[in-house]
Each structure stands twice: as C-alpha cells, then as structure tokens.
Amino acid sequence: MINAVGLRKVYRLKDREVLALDGVDLHVRQGEIYGVVGQSGAGKSTLLRCVNLLERPTAGTVAVDGEDLTSLSGARLRAARRGIGMVHQHFALLSSRTVAANVAFPLEIAGVGRAERRRRVGELLELVGLQEKARAYPAQLSGGQKQRVGIARALASSPKVLLSDEATSALDPATTESILELLRDLNRELGLTILLITHEMDVIKRICDSAAIMEQGVFRESGKVLDLLATPGSLLARSLFPLPPADAPGVVTITYPRQFDEPLMSELTRRFDVDVNVLGGAVETVSGQSVGRLNVGIQGANRAAALAYLKDKGLLVEESTR
C-alpha cells in the first residue's frame, strides 16, 4: 500500500544543510499497522510528511496504492491525497467550529453536498463513539475526545491509508489505551492501512504488525514485529524487554517467540543435569501474542546439549559475547 524507495530529504538553511532522511526504504503492506519509533530528531515526522508529499523529498520515490505521488503536482496530487488521512499530535481542530463541522470540513472542501455531508458525519461520529458531542466545541472536549474528532475528520474522505503523527503522545495513559484500541478497531473493521510514528515502545507493542527503529534519518532495523523479536541482536527486542546485561560467564538470553506451556527450565535440569539460574525476565503481549525473554545462567558438562535442546524447541538463544 505504501512503497517508498531511497527517500532522501535535505533542508537547506542559510549557512548549512541538514540531512533529515538518508536513503530510507519503507514498505507497508495493505491492511497492516506499521510503526516507526525513534527519539526526537530521528526524522520520523519528515518521513511521514514525505509519504503524503506535504514535504517533497530531495530524492527517492513514494507510491501509495500503486500511484507514484512524487510524479504528481497540483490538482492531481491534491486528488491523490484524499486517499490519505492524517491524524495530528495536537489535534489541529478549528476552535470556532462544532465537532460535526470539524469532521465535515474536508467534505466541504471536496464539494460534497450538504445532505451527504450530514449523513457521512453522523456515520463517522458513531464510528468513533462521539454521536452525543456533535454540537459541542473543541474547548468543551477532553484530550481523548479531541483526538477522536481528529480521527473522524481524517476518515471523512474514506481514505485507504491513515497517517498518525504522535497521535497519543499528548494523552494520559488511560486515554492513550482507548485511542490505540480505536485505531486497531478501525484497522480491522475498515481494512485501513495505518502508518504511525511514535517515540513510545509501548505503542509498537500494543498494536503494530510491523515496525522500524529510526535513528539519524535511517532505519536501523525494520520488519514484522514478531520476526524482529526472533532475530539475534534485535534492537527492538532489547528495547521492548530491557533486561539486565547478560555479560557473566555461562549466561544466555532466551526469547520465547510464542506461548510455551512446557516447564523448559525444569526440563533442562532433569534431562541434562545442568544448573539453571534465572537472572531476569519479562513476558509481554506483542502483536496479540505472548512473548518472553529471559537472562539465564546455565552451567554444567552438558551445557551445549541443553542449549541445542532449547533451539530445537524453536527458542532464540543468544550467548554473551563477553
């Protein structure tokens, strides 16, 4: 659904150039939620704005739903953008308009008739759970309600793609949870493809199918979340599971990429006569599946056989390089 190749963006200032994107490739499948995570200044917002060409990349191409946006301009580009919704961090609502009028605004611009606008607005407010707030003004809403209005407005033109620019970073934890649930529900009910940027790993864990870690204008790592967690040396795994360093002799890091009901650590001691010492661990629900990581000290004459047994069970076993 989104296919960006070789994206490069250079901002030219008076006395210098700033490289915001340095050859980024981004591939988002139809119907998935793709998260780009990184610290401030990593290039996330620039990437998002290049996807809908609010920023034109210095080099590279962007195609959405098979159409090369970088080859378009003027009316053709504006028409293509109607298939791409945008949700902003700070809501960007019009304070002088009611909730219903805010949601209707893109439809007015597109020349949709009044009766059809009214029908569509009612449909969208029901979708985001704000039917009773149609006549309210933004100042009368909570932060979560404002973001729901922003989401409804972004969906007004029935886009196939929704871009989310730090949509939950200004919200409290409980409200963040409700907005993430709404995005996942919209993804499932409408088949909506969602590209979101965030600096919160919890957002990646909660709703993303695929993800990329971005630093200094490049992707350090990208792919399906569960595949990355099962990849040796994964940055994403270390970020989602901040365990103590596994740098003592005999210590390994074990990743359970799926739910295991077997008492594997007890089995190691019985079967291979090794000493097992669990030094730290965590279990998280990632992309709807339970994933666990453990730092475990394993000592004994049959240690190699014990590690091979764990690998045969489908676990990722990483030995300390120190």
UniProtKB/TrEMBL annotation:
- Mind listing the UniProt keywords for this protein, alphabetically? Amino-acid transport, ATP-binding, Cell membrane, Membrane, Nucleotide-binding, Translocase, Transport
One Pfam entry for this protein is: ABC_tran
Q: Keyword check for Transport, yes or no.
A: yes
Q: Name one GO molecular function term.
A: ATP binding
What residues does the ABC transporter domain cover? Answer: 5-241
Q: What does this protein do?
A: Part of the ABC transporter FtsEX involved in cellular division. Has ATPase activity.
Q: Into which family does the record put it?
A: Belongs to the ABC transporter superfamily.
What PANTHER family would the database entry show? AMINO ACID IMPORT ATP-BINDING PROTEIN, METHIONINE IMPORT ATP-BINDING PROTEIN METN
| Name of the molecule in the record | D-methionine transport system ATP-binding protein
UniProt source species: Marinactinospora thermotolerans DSM 45154
